[in-house]
Amino acid sequence: MRDYVIRRLIQLVPLIIIVSVLIYGIIDLAPGDPLEQLLLDPDFTMEDLARLEQIYGVGGPFPERWAKWFWRLIRYQDLGVARFHPYPVWDLIVERVPITLRLSILAMSVSLLVAVPLGIFSAKRQYSSWDNFFTGLAFMGRSMPTFWFGIMLILIFGIYLGGTPLELPMGNLTSIIFTEGVPWITLQLDAAKHLILPVLVLGLAGMTGWTRYVRSTLLEVLRMDYIRTARAKGLSERVVIWKHAIRNVLIPLITLVALALPGLFAGAIITETIFAIPGMGRLIFSAVISKDFSLAVGALTFLCFLTIASNLLADILYAVVDPRVRYR
Amino acid sequence: MPEYDYLVDVRNLKTFFYTEDGVVPAVDRVSLRIKSGETLGVVGESGCGKSVTSLSIMRLIQEPPGKILEGEIFFKGENLLLKPEEEMRKIRGGDIAMIFQEPMTSLNPVYTVGDQVSEAIILHQGLSKKDAIDKVVQMFKLVGISDAERRVNSYPHQLSGGMRQRVMIAMALSCSPDLLIADEPTTALDVTIQAQILELMKELKGRLGMAIILVTHNLGVVAEMAQNIMVMYAGKVVEYASARDIFKTPQHPYSYGLLYSVPRLDRGKSKEPLLTIEGIVPNPYNMPPGCRFHPRCKFRMDICDKEEPPLTAIENSERSVACWLFIRRGKQDFLSEGVI
Prior knowledge:
Chain A: The chain crosses the membrane at residues 12-30, 99-123, 144-163, 195-214, 249-277, 297-321. The complex is a heterodimer. By secondary structure, chain A is mainly alpha-helical. Chain A is built from 12 helices and no strands. In chain A, helix 9 packs antiparallel against helix 11. The longest helix of chain A is centred in the middle third of the chain and has 39 residues, at 184-222. The radius of gyration of chain A is 24 Å and the shape is globular. Chain A starts with a helix and ends with a helix. By secondary structure, chain B is an alpha/beta fold. Chain B has 12 helices and 12 strands. The longest helix of chain B is centred in the middle third of the chain and has 18 residues, at 191-208. Chain B is globular, with a radius of gyration of 21 Å. The model of chain B has no long low-confidence stretch (mean pLDDT 84). The chains are: A mainly alpha, B alpha/beta. At the A-B interface, helix 8 and helix 9 of A face helix 2 and helix 3 of B.
């Protein structure tokens, strides 16, 4: 098991290098130059440009520029300075990641908590009216555009239910009315209320998709010979499903869930925009729109690293639950 | 003495499958009886209802699409079909155990074999986890798994097919069942392993004295192990007789065809080609009327496609056969008539 993890970690090194070349290259190919826009300022001279190119290491041929950028990243955790924020890109990412990460992990957990029991419930009653009902609901949720769902939730919980106890606060992560001396629990409750709708919106895709996935995988697993063996032993249906079937359903689900994490970060772009949450999604979005070269490269590199890390996590978890992988 | 004559007494069992394409009469009025300690061989082509019969006895038919429509399954004098699911679970794996055809897929890949075998022991005998594992080691030794102490911690993929079937046998026998249903236990194994597994089953039967229903399409297997043989065709019993009788004087044209389609050492160095049963198994959605075998039968008569032949007992014996030829003309001697 330890050898397996070490081997996987070593395999990551070339992958990371290739990915960073690709990201740097793609953004580099985009029209415009990180410093070009500064020339719009009449006081900005060509000498200033050359000096800044020297400082940021953005002049010269592509391999040299990439090498300098990559070296600074791994040696000094330096991704350059964002143009429209007066901060280093690294600090911006470090500040935003926890917000989106919390949102994503909550969305993922809620999705799983809904999907696994509901998938099992549906599979056990295949083609019953309950099963059909949830199938319909899942397809509806799946087909609904995220932004529309978010707007509808805002309409319901912010406006129609406004003034009732069911009203939920919108926008940002906390309300801003608080002054000193507010009890801790009230603050937490307020933060939690702000998270409910974004988590629902971000988790919708996972909730619906995974429910279907658990249902179909479980139906497949229940047809397996070893399930018949388990029943022939006299085990109760509960043990058959929760011991013998569920673990075999979880194995493929783990890959799916771990690989969904980068997808949730990407999906957060819409959710964070709708609910005005200052997370990674909005950061990437604004970086690309405003051609903020350093910020875009930095944020995309982070997303790629996250994807790679999720992959690794999936492989390790896979080995934990599936003995056939563990001993290879 | 127990108050029942037969350990298993199945009467007019009818198990149908209701699929989108139609109704499949997989088992149609099948009756069978087994005394304690006896072995019954159930023989027939793929899809003739052998496996469905054995799964029906265990009440493991998936419902839907399957359904046991009629009949009675008496086990130790009690009708299993009337038992609530909870009591049935106590019988499964306890009094009646089963071995399946596919040792490669019959064990759960994510649990150790020790865990899977001990599960039944814990459930039916109420042993602690530790005692149960000790019992598993004992059982593994009994079925000839070497290095049993270490093997209990193996996962199925670490064992060969023959070893896995031994694990399955250990699992089935761990609670000392009165009846063992072996559904093609050696079909998926190569020939040398087949012989080993059969030898093992024979030996264990001698030692533990359970009754066995041996489902197979391999006639050599039943010849060696079974006292009685039931031949099935398209969901019907066509002939029921002792192993001796059926190998010597098969009465149903299908049994005859089945027996003489395999090479036999005791028939000498005959240069004659082996017998083939022409045609194919009928479409289960659309069974032929009358005798289900009539489209392939060389002895077909006018009545055969009109009326179904009842299973008729042969006088002064435990044999019975469902064939108009027998009903009209009495006992046949296909061998000396030399019909091929």
